[in-house]
Structure formats: structure tokens, C-alpha cells
Amino acid sequence: MGAITSFFANMGLLHLSVGNVVMIGVGLTLAYLAIRHKMEPLLLLPIGITAVLVNLPNSGITSAPHGLLYIVYNYLIKTEIVPLLIFFGLGAMTDFGPMIADPKTALLGAAAQVGVFVAMLSAILLGFNLHEAASIGIIGGADGPTTIYLTTKLAPQILGATAVAAYSYMSLVPIIQPPVIRALTSKKERRIRMKQLRPVSKREKIMFPIITMVTIGLLVPPAAPLIGMLMIGNLFRESGVVERLSKAAQEELMNIVTIFLGLGVGSTMRAQSFLTVRTLEILGLGALAFASATAGGVLFGKLMSKLSHGEINPMIGAAGVSAVPMSARVVQRIASEEDPGNFILMHAMGPNVAGVIGTAVVAGVFLSIFG
Fold first, then answer.
1. How many other C-beta atoms can be found within 10 angstroms of the C-beta atom of residue 207?
2. How far apart are CA 246 and CA 256, in angstroms?
3. 14 three-class SS
4. For position 9, what pLDDT does the model report?
5. Of the candidates 15, 21, 23, which has an alpha carbon nearest to the alpha carbon of residue 274?
6. CB atoms within 10 A of CB 279
7. Three-state SS for 38?
8. C-alpha–C-alpha distance, residues 293 and 299, integer Å
9. Quick one: which H or E segment has residue 272?
């Protein structure tokens, strides 16, 4: 009788709270968006379904010291292993050629970082502390791994909210960016055709990751882990002598760490920590961050267009948010709608990949100041 009583007393159904039910609904919604609408499915699906799992009472999967999700979060996410390996894989997948061919487009990647500071200042006004505000602001960089990396170091208590905001809005780039781009540019500006990019030599592509890693590592040391892993992965890609390792970084390793990243972030979405007014504020600030980052890039693009006497299409500034290659594709789609023969995708890829570097540098600056 004691065993039977214990069994029924420990049934999760008896301990299910309203908060748990709501979070199960949130998790299922994220999974639905990933499956039905293909919104960042590689991360929103594992995050969403893991959020369902951690809100089933008494499962023990997040319990110390042997719960699986406890181990994943504390030994793979919190120790920065997974975010850094994600950057390694991203480096192996990224072609910096368009930015090397036209270095001035890197300025557009820097200009788009204005979204980080707009969201950060807004968070401070709403009462978040500096560590939390910096973690919220970095959402504007549209770089999920950087958001997770910085939040884990500065404000782990809001990791679930910032990660969900970052990846949700990254998937909504095709919806968020076009209205901002059209509002800030004229039809004539959107129809500007740009000159074909020059070819980039293999030597340039090999030297770029080495020089970038050393330069940023010396100037902003806290950014060295992120930039270092990104550039090492890129060197594997461009050297041409470790194709097997480069392919493994792009595929097998990237797939494995993406799974752990989704599980680890999802494990932080328990009702008691996630279901707060602060979470709603973070989601709102995330939308503001993306919109203002897009606006910052486009406005700086307009300035560059004037200075170049109309040789630069200001829309490519919108690609300065580091949602690679989604934001560059959005720019190309709008350009094609205005002029079917206008091909500016590769020009947009310059600020797009520059945005990845820019966001990592801003994260390093925040760590240097607040860490």
C-alpha cells in the first residue's frame, strides 16, 4: 500500500501547475512554427519540444547531478563549449569573399549594430540591470550563438527568453525587414544596380581569417574565443588542404552541437523562470532590436550611396544584421521585385558576413566592460 500511495503521490499530473500548462503550450507552439512554417526549424523544434519536456513535473531530467538536461546545460552550454563550436562550424560554412572584394561594405555590418544599442538602452529604461540589458541588446545582432554566449556569461537567468527571441526573430527576418527597407528607401534607390565584384584570390581568403583573428584578439581580447573559432573554421574551409575536416565541421559537428544547443536552451524554459512579465518585455525588445538594426544599416547605406554618387544600393545595408544568408536573400528579393534583372545578392553578402564579425566584437566589448 505504501508503494502504491507513493506512486500516485509522485504522479506528475497531480503537480501540474497552470504555469506548466502554459509553457507546454508555448513549447508546442514553437514546435508547430518549426514544423508547419519552417521557422528556424533546426533550433526552434528542439527548443520547443524540450520546453514541453521540462514542464512535465517530477521527470527529474533537469535535476542535479545526473539529469540529462542538467548535464547538457551546465557542462556544454554554461561552459561555452557548444556556442564556440557553433561558431567553428559557421566559419567553415562562411565565404568572406564578397566582403574581401568590397571592404567598404563591412561598414554596413558595423552600422547595423545600432540595433544592439537601441535595444540595450531601451532595456535599461525598462529597469533591466546592465548585464541583462547587454544580453538583450545583442539580440539586435541577429546572431543566435553570440546571444547565447553573452547571456550565459552575463545574465544566465534570462537565457531562455533571449535565445527564443533571437531565433524567433531570425526566422521572421523576411517579415520584419521588407517594411523597414521600403519605408526608408525610394523606388529609384531600390533599383540601383551595382558593379560586379572583383575576383578574390585564394591567398586573400587564407590571409583574411588569420589577420582578423590576430587583430581583433589583440584589440578586443574577450571577443577572441568567438572570432578565433569562427576564423579557424573559415581557414579550414579556405586552405583547401583539410577538406575532410572542413566538411565534418559543416555537417556532422554542426548537427551535433545544434542538437545540444536546442536541448540546453529548451531546458531553461521552465514555467517558474520563463513565465514572467520580463520575458514578454525581452520579446518586445528583440523585435525593436531587429527593426532598428535594419534601419541603421539602410540609413548608413543611403549615406554611402550619396557619397558614391549612386553606385551603392542602400538596401544592402539591411543585410548588415548577421542573419546569414537570410537577410541578404531578402534584399535580393526586393531588388528583383523592383527590377527583375538586378542581381545584388553577392553585394549584400558582404555586409551580411561583416555583421557576424561585428556582433561578436560588440559582445567582446560588453564582456570587457561588464564581465
1. 14
2. 15
3. helix
4. 65
5. 23
6. 19
7. coil
8. 10
9. helix 271-274
Cell 544547443, located at residue: 261
Q: Which of 188, 64, 174, 148 is nearest to 360 (CA)?
A: 148
Q: What is the pLDDT of residue 8?
A: 67
* Amino acid present at 70: Y
Total-model pTM: 0.93
Other C-beta atoms closer than 10 Å to the C-beta of 310 total: 13
Q: Break the chain into its structural domains and give their ranges.
A: 62-370
Residue 359, C-beta contacts closer than 8 angstroms, at least 6 positions apart: 113, 116, 138, 141, 142, 143, 146, 322
Cell numbers at 244, concatenated: 575532410
Instruction: Report the C-alpha gap between 14 and 11 in whole angstroms.
Output: 6
Residue 64 near residue 57 (C-beta atoms within 8 A): no
Rounded Cα distance, 296 and 325, in Å: 18
Helices marked H in 220-253 — which ranges?
224-239, 243-248
Q: What pLDDT is recorded for position 314?
A: 97
In this prediction, residue 322 carries a pLDDT of 83
Contact 114, 292 (CB under 8 A): yes
CB distance 351 to 316 below 8 Å? yes
Enter the DSSP assignment of 13: G
pLDDT at 10: 75
106 and 356 Cβ atoms separated by less than 8 Å: no
Question: Cα separations (Å) of 71 from 85, 130, 242?
Answer: 17, 29, 32
Cell of 99: 566582403
Question: What does pLDDT average to in each consecutive run of 10 residues of the chain (371 residues)?
Answer: 74 87 96 93 94 94 94 94 96 97 95 96 97 96 91 95 91 92 96 95 98 97 97 98 97 96 94 92 94 96 96 96 90 96 95 95 95 77
SS3 of 330-350: the string is HHHHHHHHHCCCCCCHHHHHH
